Amino acid sequence: MRKTRYAAAAIAAVAALTLSACGGGSDSGSESGSTEGSGEKIRIGIKFDQPGLGFKDGSEFTGFDVDVAKYVANELGYPEDQIEFMASPSAQRENMLENDQLDMIFATYSITDTRKEKVAFAGPYFVAGQDLLVPADSDIAGPEDLEGKNLCSVTGSTSAQKIKDEKAAGVNLLEQPSYAECVTAMQGGQIDAVTTDDIILAGLASTDANKGKFKVVGNPFSEEKYGVGLPKEGGVVTCEDINTAITKMIDDGAWEEAIKKNTEGADYTFNAEMNPPKMDACA
Ligand code: GLU
């Protein structure tokens, strides 16, 4: 059932149990399949360039996605030193799970039926809404004002897809590999607006380099339920265990603390009707 790389951990676990049994052993208490103490790492996909959500700051990783990932991983038996954070850009998330490059994704990853054809989701652990980021002096107040404008979003995101599918006919959509690149294009004046989830835009607008230059329109036009992406088959963690961990994080106050800490100083108020969310049933 498990993949080769876990066989070593299993053998190590059995060896440890055998040794403790020989030694007249203390009660190990560890369940079979637990990786605790084995040093086995869990590979978690996050964003590296979304301040406040998933951000690589030198050798540190910060943001709400990162805090939820660390909490959940710890509950599953992987303390921080057993987490390997990897970048999972929007367009590569399904592929990375399908190709066994990652065990879990916490990367502003909306649960959608299309994605569920390729991957599984636990959660949701947050609900955001698609919005627009515009220059501070812009008149754009919603997607209806985008006709003839240059809009930037990210390849493989629900944000770009929604614009293509239904919103704002006559808009020129430029797709970039990441939202940070969209903001750079807007700084240069080539772009009139950037679209993605409100919480992502608020984080980008609040950095020292961008402060005062841009505003989040504050007129969300979708519901983005952030799930924990999992491989459909052969995963090392279960959707049920992840949902239990997220529920615990919400109940013990750590979830709220993480949201507050990571949106501090950003122009952002989350949708309190939708948050904290209830877990979906696992498939
Ligand atoms: N939540 C949306 C999505 O999953 C937009 C943010 C992103 O690209 O990560 O596509």
Automatic annotation (TrEMBL):
- Solute-binding protein family 3/N-terminal domain location, by residue? 41-266
Question: From its record, what is one biological process in GO terms?
Answer: amino acid transport
Instruction: Return the Pfam families for the record.
Output: SBP_bac_3
Q: Which residues form the signal peptide?
A: 1-21
**InterPro entries in UniProt:** Bact_solute-bind_prot3, SBP_3_CS, Solute-binding_3/MltF_N
Q: Which UniProt keywords apply?
A: Signal, Transport
A Gene Ontology cellular component where this protein is annotated is: extracellular region
Q: Which PROSITE patterns match?
A: PROKAR_LIPOPROTEIN (PS51257), SBP_BACTERIAL_3 (PS01039)
Origin: domain of life: Bacteria
Key word Zinc present = no
Annotated family = Belongs to the bacterial solute-binding protein 3 family.
Protein name in UniProt: Transporter substrate-binding domain-containing protein
Source organism: Arthrobacter yangruifuii
